[in-house]
């Protein structure tokens, strides 16, 4: 036998439930009410680490909560990406990453334990971190054309450091277009790669300005070119690589993500606060000191579209450079 509540009683119960839900929502603490962890998939001292600490400090001031940078380097940013993807999507674990994890890795590896689109919530693009091609001062070259001529005259005898996907793809693109034979040597971090470049273990390195800016303007290394399409005021006299290597086109971007499934209100709050942080002149000045160019997305949706476009662009770059996908 079925029993049914009178219509008036059902309405009363429904209204009571709605009121209870509204009350619970009203009593829920406003976001954020606890420290936020900002995972960085590169080592301390890297360019992305420097950007994360500057942006994190400013974001902390606006949110009135600590933003703690947590370096999780390894496997070409895969370690940090996996940890971020598996975190609770509550806004208390964020991921400051680059094109390494979200543009290049999907084409460089036959399989990944994370999906750059499905496993993440795009929050905001932060900007662009230029890279520069530097060589050991022990080499008898002073310009990029001279370096390429030297490499052609000594095939297979030079080596370059590759601690991340950007360095790898940039150098392999140069090799492919200029038709030179230079051996790639994998490294776990930019600081390690710089140490070996200075020590003469490798002769070349495409380094991010955040890691290497202090050395680029001195005499410890020779800076031959920059990856941006236009010369940088931070490196006066250093030409774009594309002026010599025709067809070279590479942009290294930084952005902040959260795990998939973040509440839209939290995503919007973070995006709004990050827009304010990146519009702040003090923030811009501090980032400029490490060579970083602020270039924020206006909305999370705009950033999501950019990520998808860059994923396709980097796949094309990697294919054109003749780089074969390998096992992670």
TrEMBL record:
Signal sequence, start to end: 1-26
A Pfam family annotated for this UniProt entry: TctC
The entry's keywords: Signal
Record has Signal as a keyword: yes
Domain of life: Bacteria
InterPro entries recorded: BUG, Bug_dom1
Stated family: Belongs to the UPF0065 (bug) family.
Protein name: ABC transporter substrate-binding protein
Annotated source species: Paracidovorax avenae (strain ATCC 19860 / DSM 7227 / CCUG 15838 / JCM 20985 / LMG 2117 / NCPPB 1011)
Higher taxonomy: Bacteria, Pseudomonadati, Pseudomonadota, Betaproteobacteria, Burkholderiales
